[in-house]
Design a protein that fits this description.
CATH topology of the largest domain: Rossmann fold
Bound molecules: adenosine-5'-diphosphate, magnesium ion
Number of helices: 10
Number of strands: 14
Strand order of the largest sheet: 6-7-8-3-9-10
Structural class: alpha/beta
Family: Belongs to the ABC transporter superfamily.
GO molecular function: ATP binding; ATP hydrolysis activity
Helix content: 25-40%
Radius of gyration: 24 Å
Pfam families: ABC_tran (PF00005)
Keywords: ATP-binding, Nucleotide-binding, Transport
Organism: Psychrobacillus vulpis
Oligomer: single chain
CATH superfamily of the largest domain: P-loop containing nucleotide triphosphate hydrolases
Low-confidence stretches: none
Length: 302
């Protein structure tokens, strides 16, 4: 499976919702499409799901136009529309048949899918009585009905309370093991937990395509803060002499240690402390910005 989005643009009257957007997604990836409200996420996702047509550019799945590959894509809309009076099972039967799956196959497959999204015990309850998290899990079940190789989810957790959010995030973690995922959100921390890669969109334009590790290391000083027992303070002189330590500074009871490379050297530093029998009270890897701050900076300044 490979998804290619090539120079896609979409205008609504004089508003450019998506502007020359390109990206590729490989099998097994889980990518977060992140951007503030109005950035163009839903428009782009509808184009990928072939619900909306782009003005320019194309979306290809395994080299073929998306309109020919629809059954390979599962789509969870931002606001799924269910009939409140149907039960969960009836909803899946109805929606599955609408998307062209035979009733026979649906009757075979629905129990497995209900089990996957954790709704087996609720299959005969009416959707009206469902919590937000349960509705969203039913929406995901619907998107999985035709066993797509790619699932696109538009803000799957944004509208949920903390319990619903947890239910759906856990479910996405499971689905991720077998399906390629593209999900949108305006809350970075939602994607942070499940996606390895982030594509940031602002005013319809892609402004960033990066990974969590890259984002953190780019924006953070290679600094650790260490607090040690007073009896071990002489260790700091030793640390100062280490080839990978650039600088040490006392900051109250903590020492701020600037390293050459945080990923490689922080563990060497811990090892050195252990080798010298140093009593570590606190070891903190941190820099200037939280991810949320990095995201805000990107979205506001770019
Ligand atoms: P997001 O999902 O990131 O919040 P959308 O894709 O929904 O953003 O919207 C992107 C921009 O396009 C917004 O300015 C929105 O008002 C506009 N837009 C979206 N759909 C329509 C539409 N059907 N008609 C007119 N403008 C639209
Ligand atoms: Mg949206």
């Amino acid at each position: 499976m490979k998804l290619e989005i090539n120079n896609v643009s979409k205008r609504f009257k004089d508003k450019t919702a998506v502007n020359q957007f390109s990206m590729e997604l490989e099998i097994g990836q889980c990518v977060g499409l992140i951007g503030p409200n109005g950035a163009g996420k839903s428009t782009l996702i509808k184009i990928i799901a072939d619900i909306l047509h782009s003005d320019e550019g194309e979306v290809l799945l395994d080299g073929k136009r998306i309109s020919k590959m629809k059954r390979e894509i599962g789509y969870l809309p931002q606001y799924p529309n269910f009939f409140q009076w149907m039960t969960a099972r009836e909803t899946l039967l109805f929606m599955g048949q609408l998307s062209g799956i035979s009733k026979k196959r649906l009757i075979e497959d629905i129990p497995t899918i209900l089990a996957k999204v954790g709704l087996t015990g609720e299959q005969n309850r009416k959707v009206r009585t469902f919590s937000g998290g349960m509705k969203q899990r039913l929406g995901i079940a619907q998107a999985l009905l035709h066993k797509p190789s790619l699932i696109v989810m538009d803000e799957p957790v944004s509208a949920l309370d903390p319990i619903g959010r947890r239910e759906v995030l856990n479910l996405i973690q499971e689905i991720k093991k077998e399906t390629t995922i593209l999900l949108s959100t305006h809350i970075l921390s939602d994607a942070e937990e499940i996606c390895e890669r982030f594509v940031i969109i602002k005013d319809g334009t892609k402004i960033e395509d990066t990974t969590m590790t890259e984002l953190i290391s780019r924006n953070h000083e290679p600094v650790v803060y260490v607090e040690i027992a007073p009896k071990d303070h002489s260790w700091i002189q030793l640390v100062d002499q280490l080839p990978y330590v650039k600088k040490t500074e006392m900051m109250g009871s903590k020492v701020k240690i600037t390293l050459e490379n945080i990923d490689v050297h922080k563990n060497m530093l811990i090892q050195n402390a252990l080798d010298n029998d140093v009593d570590i009270v606190r070891f903190e890897v941190s820099g200037n910005d939280t991810l949320e701050e990095i995201f805000l900076k990107l979205v506001v300044s770019a």
